[in-house]
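Q: Could you fold this chain for me?
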Amino acid sequence: MIDSHAHLNDPRFDSILDDVIARAEAAGVEGIINIGYDLPSSRRAVELAETYDWMYAVVGIHPHEADEVTPQTMVELEQLAKAEQVVAIGETGLDYYYDNSPRKIQQQVFHAHLDLAKRLGLPVVIHSREATQDTIEIIKAHPENRFLLHCFSQSLESAKIYLDLGCYISFAGPITFKNAEKLRRVAAAVPLDRLMIETDCPYLAPVPYRGKTNEPAWVKYVAEKLAELHKISIEELVAVTTKNTREFFNLKSKVQ
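A: Sure. Below is the predicted structure, expressed as structure tokens.
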């Protein structure tokens, strides 16, 4: 399995990282993609990828932090993104649920990330919450980019639009939650060749660990639920999501 969206760069893992990694390896996790959400976490993601040859880094500024982005921020992000271990730009996007940054600024920073990804030939990891229409319009404005909607929580109608635009879709722990029937229907409808699995750790731990600090070892519970929804074996689900993740992030020569 590959955890396509983790935050082992989160400080809460610093003192327990060795144990978390050992549990991930024991659970059959063969790759972890650590996602940046500001410059310090992006640098840490690169450090982890340099330390562990089965980890990879994604660098970017979360929409929550968009109002702190300056031209110099983007210069530093571009320098960081040129590291060999960086496989995508993100997480970037729009979050109108919290509105921690003004919406116009979120949109401007989102566009800037997509321009950077195009220049470097890297795919993009998107965070989108309560901002579906604007997210879709910005994706449409950048047809040269490749996109992954992470921790998907939107409607089936929205999923179909994203799929028509060539996007990949990843699901996390919420598909295991008791009250997530609508989300499970969406997950069941996403074609296998566009599907990925993730933890979004340390957040959104799946059942039976809901409420605890999430970790990559528990991506198996997401895989099990998706296999059940698609009526295939866990082995088939893992094989196809691993293949999709390798291809989207261009990991073919790195993760065997």
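A (continued): The chain has one domain: 2-248.
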